[in-house]
Write a structure and sequence with these properties.
It is a single chain. By secondary structure, the chain is an alpha/beta fold. Helix content is about 35%, strand content about 20%. The chain has eleven helices and 14 strands. The strands form three sheets. An eight-stranded parallel beta barrel has the order 7-8-9-10-11-12-13-14, surrounded by six helices. Strands 2-3-1-4 form a four-stranded antiparallel beta sheet, with helices on one face. The structure holds phosphoenolpyruvate (PEP) and manganese (II) ion (MN).
Amino acid sequence: MGSMVVTTEAAATAAVQEALRASSVELRPIAPGVLFGADDAEAASLARHLPGVLAVHRHAPAWPLASRLLAPSSPVDVGGVVFGGRGIAVIAGPCAVEGAAQLELVGSDVVRAGAHALRGGAFKPRTSPYSFQGLGHDGLALLAAWKARHPGVPVVTEVLDTRQVEAVAAVADMLQIGARNMQNSALLCAVAERGKPVLLKRGFGNTAAELLHSAEYLLSRGNEAVVLCERGIRTLEPGTRFTLDVGAVAWLKQRTRLPVIVDPSHAAGVSDLVTPLALAGIAAGADGLMVEVHDDPAQARSDGDQALLLDEFTALLDTLAPVAAAVGRSLGRPASSVSSNPVAA
Ligand code: PEP
Ligand code: MN
């Protein structure tokens, strides 16, 4: 049957909803000036004539706020780094925060090489309970100290649980919701309400449409700063850890106004496949990358096999520049100083 969206002047939303209800048409407000419900020809013609109605969109997608219905694109500014603009935004850093020296070394190296934002997990979602689970609150403190030494470089770190939202948001410029939590609606709601930019990763067993439904949780709770991330899905192919779904990147870019980035590291699982997957992601239309880098991958406490050395990360960016240019994007670098940060607004 499909869905219908009615946009109204902000002050008229409640009156329009009431007028439609009087004719047994139920539409619910999902954002200021936006009513949403089942598609219906009669309801549509009724709505069109109500005062304060701006537009009636029939056959709307089930994720209207994430769709391109209301805007063709909505760039997200994270501490001055823009996702979804002309520039390719690059987040890089270790899988996990392992200690002050490691974070300082890898963090300052990736920024010097051209990364625009730092990643590093303090709370790690691991398959085995016996694996390193991250430094937790101590890891957050190390990220906070790193930030103080590198003003202007935004920090992205994962939040695993609603109970961690406050502590993570106090440090992070962008809260990462990982693949395993993509459909954790309680976490989505808690993170949305905190109001900070969100990096929402696609679950490895979820469709791209389900990713947009999850984004809708954030958007309908008033958080507009949402960036999506394709990080690979489970397929029958054992050669890579996950299969980077470049088709979904193109599919998403045609259907959502939200920026979409690619994480080639978790998809590849091994470092020598990271660069080709990064290139494929950008060629498919991705707005940015998230890449794992480590100073000593053999000693990494998580995901060492897929970590790039600094030289390899630098080479990745070199290789990427002409690919970005070929699809009408730029890869400004290096971000050696904050004021020359090329993705800065
Ligand atoms: C990560 O980026 O640190 C991570 C755990 O990734 P994912 O949620 O995609 O597995
Ligand atoms: Mn990792």
